[in-house]
Amino acid sequence: MALLDANISKPRMGGPSFSLRHRFYRTSWSLTWALLGRWSPVPFHGWRRFLLTMFGADIHRTARVYPSADIWYPRNLTMAEYSCLASGSVCYCMDKIELRPHALVSQGAYLCGGTHDVDAPSFQLISKPIVIGANAWVAAGAFVGPGVIVGDGSVLGARGVSVKNLAPYTIYAGNPARPIRRRKFDGAVRD
């Protein structure tokens, strides 16, 4: 929430929620990604990691970010070893978003670190961190809301919507996401 500027924020009147400096950083990042990252060939993961780290992301050298992934604020992104943001995924990291080892965010999935206080007359922006646990999978087109912890080894099925924490090693599906069954996964990395 430190990035939000309550003194200038007037979202109901179209006002910005972030300082001019913050908006300049995001514009610089967006232009850099559009010109140097988005067009890069799929195997150039190292190049995209370099761009992200130049803008403050904490990305392990084995993590993979695909060219059409959309990262809103790299300084709030942490990716551990072998984690992945797939094609068309959106990482709306208004607050910290962490992908732990072997976490996979599939095509078109949306990690949303922000919302609004719907009960406040000011409709103030609120940001909350997201954690995608080790060996967890956020499947294609799924949505993970602000403040959610996707437990280690859990699965959020395609088009699933989670606004609450997901228990470790449990498969969820639907809108809202509901537990389907426990995952038969011993935690060992398989080839």
What are the defining features of this structure?
191 residues; alpha/beta; UDP N-Acetylglucosamine Acyltransferase, domain 1; five-stranded parallel beta sheet
Distance between the termini: 40 Å
- Do you know the CATH architecture? 3 Solenoid
Beta percentage is: 25-35%
CATH topology: UDP N-Acetylglucosamine Acyltransferase, domain 1
How many separate domains make up the residues? 1
How much is the radius of gyration in Å? Answer: 17 Å
Helix content: 10-25%
Shape: globular
Quick check: average pLDDT? 91
The helix-strand sequence is HHEEEEEEEEEEEEEEEEEEE
* Widest β-sheet, arrangement of strands: 2-5-8-13-16-18-19
CATH class: Mainly Beta
Short description:
Helices cover 15% and strands 26% of the residues. The protein is α/β, with parallel strands linked by helices.
Task: List the SSEs and their pairings.
Layout: H1 20-37, H2 45-54, E1 58-59, E2 64-65, E3 70-71, E4 77-79, E5 84-85, E6 90-92, E7 97-99, E8 104-105, E9 110-112, E10 114-116, E11 125-127, E12 130-132, E13 137-138, E14 143-144, E15 149-150, E16 155-156, E17 161-162, E18 170-173, E19 178-182
Parallel strand pairs: 1-4, 2-5, 3-6, 4-7, 5-8, 6-9, 7-12, 8-13, 9-14, 12-15, 13-16, 14-17, 16-18
Antiparallel strand pairs: 10-11, 18-19
